[in-house]
Amino acid sequence: MKIPLAWLQLKHQKTRLLVAIAGISFSVILMFMQLGFQSALFDSAVLLHKSLNGDIFLLSPRSTALIAMKSFSERRLYQALGDKNVEFITPIYLGFAQWKNPANPLKWRNIHIIGFDTEYSVFNLPGVEQNMDKLKEPDVVLFDLASRPEFGPVVNLFQSQTSLLTEIDNMSNATRKIEVVGLFKLGTTFGIDGNLITSHLNFLRIFSQRKKGLIEVGVIKLKSGNPANIEQKLQQYLPNDVQIFTKEEWIKFEKQYWMTSTAIGFIFSLGVAMGLIVGIVVVYQILYTDVANHLKEYATLTTMGYRHRYFLTVVFQESLILACLGYIPGFLIASGLYKIAHQTTLLPIAMTQQRTWFVFLLTIFMCFLAGIIAVRKLQDVDPADIF
């Protein structure tokens, strides 16, 4: 079998080939990491949304994201009961408080507290349903075992003692003793380092300054009917002091906040673009130098009758070879970095098949674009001038 001219030219100078592979791999790693962090940002932000057993959700118009929720009247939720398709409604209370590290009483850290009515199974989370009866006791909470380690060795202490006492400061200089009676798993986000789940009554005990009936999320579970149709009916007779979402719309609303209303969403997109540009520059330099060094050979082939299309094919073959050779180590290194990032940050960073193919196609596009720019030098090649 004939060895392609493109491969022979690339491997002629092995050092330059290795430099090109390293540059492309770096670009691939950069794109993978930025896309991975961006995906982790969006996926982690909607973990709570996906865990709620509801079809329609009510929010205050002033709420912009899970970390910036505003209260509204619980009466709007009860008004939704007028629809015959509603199976049940339940309020969700959300707030941040200071958690005292049980292993180091001098360390306090913000923690996210979720309060709900234990009459309904509203969470699809490991550990919540099993501990539902315990949450009916006063001053008890469930601790998120996927929280950051800065909250202390809570999981180990609880498993060795089956219960754990600590304190919570509700941000108004009022501390309250609470007991951890169980564990559940939700996960951290870019704005939330840890979570507690408790009953709505215990939530109001912790946040004694809060008024009962002012909630952050209203959950509506339907027994029949299309959520989109029920949503439209609710919008017609509920006042405009609440926002009404289906679950998919609420998830989209949350992601849109992080994508457009925060700097971090833009930075990750910019990082992907920078990785693409770096790769284009590296591949262009390699291919341009290769073309320049072989101008005489190309001119000779031109006089022999080879058309410009043939030279384009050679350069594009080189681009494809570089893309494949650079992608493989970049993919392997990025996969390892994903595991390290997940273990360190506890964010949902994982390699997906969709992202694998997307970055591979981006790499091919990047190398082909660099090849198109580099091959322009051949367009005006005149054998008479070269010889």
TrEMBL record:
CC terms in the record's Gene Ontology section: plasma membrane
Topology versus the membrane: Multi-pass membrane protein
Keywords: Cell membrane, Membrane, Transmembrane, Transmembrane helix, Transport
Coiled-coil intervals, chain numbering: none
Classification via Pfam families: FtsX (PF02687)
Domain named ABC3 transporter permease C-terminal: residues: 272-378
Compartment(s) of residence: Cell membrane
Regions crossing the membrane: 17-37, 263-289, 310-337, 357-375
Entry protein name: DevC protein
Organism this protein belongs to: Crocosphaera watsonii WH 8501
